[in-house]
Write a structure and sequence with these properties.
This protein has 208 residues and is α/β, with parallel strands linked by helices. 62% of the residues lie in helices and 12% in strands. It has a five-stranded parallel sheet with strand order 2-1-3-4-5, with helices on both faces. Helix 4 links the parallel strand 4 and strand 5. Helix 5 crosses helix 9 and helix 6 packs across helix 9.
C-alpha cells in the first residue's frame, strides 16, 4: 500500500524534526522544508505530496501567503496550518480561504495525524467524484444529438409517448433511441439518467 506523503514546512528545525519522526513512525512519508520557497522548489522538481502541513509565521513567505499562492495556482493538496499565535479570527479566515485545518502549538500529534488522514480522504473522494464526472461526460458526449435530446427529456420524467410528441417522432423511434442511450451511458435505470444530467449540470456550474 502506497504511503501518504506529507510536506512539512516550519522554520523551527526542532519542531520540523519532531513532527517528521512522529509521522514516519505512524507510517507516513515526509518531506521537510525550512522555508516555503524550499517547499515550492521541491514540489516543482519531485511533484506534489498528498498533504501540506505548514507553520503560519515563517521568514519571507508565510503560511498564509503560501495559502494564497496555492489558491491562485489551484494546487490540489490539502493545507493544514499550524501556529503558536492562533486567534479565532485567524483560524476562521484561514479555513474560509481554503485551509483544511488550523492547529495551535504545542501540537497534539494525534490530532495532526487525524487531520492529515481526514484531509487526504476528502481529497481522494473529490478526485474520485471528478473522475466519475469526466467518465459520465464522455459517455454522454458519445450520444448523437437526437439521443442527447431523448436523454434530457427522459431524465425529466417524460414517457416515450410524451417524448415522441415533443420531438415529432414515433414512440417506437423513441424506444430505439432510449435503448441506445441506456447502452452508451451504461445507465441501469432512468434514475441513473437523472443523476447523470444533474451531475453534468453541477459540474458545469462549478467550472464557471
Amino acid at each position: 500500500m502506497k504511503k501518504v506523503v506529507v510536506d512539512l514546512i516550519d522554520d523551527d528545525a526542532g519542531i520540523l524534526d519532531s513532527l517528521s519522526l512522529y509521522l514516519q513512525a505512524k507510517k507516513f512519508a515526509t518531506r521537510t522544508h525550512r522555508l516555503a520557497e524550499d517547499f515550492i522548489r521541491v514540489r516543482e522538481r519531485d511533484g506534489p505530496a498528498d498533504c501540506i502541513v505548514s507553520d503560519v509565521r515563517m521568514p519571507r513567505l508565510s503560511g498564509l501567503e503560501l495559502q494564497t499562492l496555492l489558491n491562485k495556482t489551484r494546487w490540489k493538496e490539502p493545507l493544514i496550518l499550524i501556529t503558536g499565535f492562533a486567534t479565532i479570527d485567524a483560524a476562521v479566515s484561514a479555513v474560509k480561504a481554503g485551509a483544511f485545518d488550523f492547529i495551535e502549538k504545542p501540537i497534539s500529534e494525534r490530532r495532526l495525524v487525524a487531520s492529515i488522514k481526514a484531509a487526504v480522504a476528502q481529497t481522494q473522494r473529490y478526485e474520485a467524484e471528478q473522475q466519475e464526472l469526466l467518465d459520465i461526460e464522455a459517455r454522454v458526449a458519445s450520444l448523437t444529438p437526437r439521443e442527447q435530446e431523448v436523454l434530457r427529456l427522459a431524465a425529466r420524467g417524460l414517457t416515450s409517448r410524451e417524448i415522441a410528441s415533443e420531438l415529432g417522432i414515433s414512440p417506437r423511434t423513441v424506444e430505439v433511441h432510449r435503448a441506445a442511450v441506456m447502452h452508451k451511458t451504461e445507465a441501469g435505470s432512468i434514475a441513473d439518467l437523472v443523476r447523470f444530467v444533474l451531475q453534468i449540470g453541477e459540474g458545469s456550474k462549478k467550472r464557471h
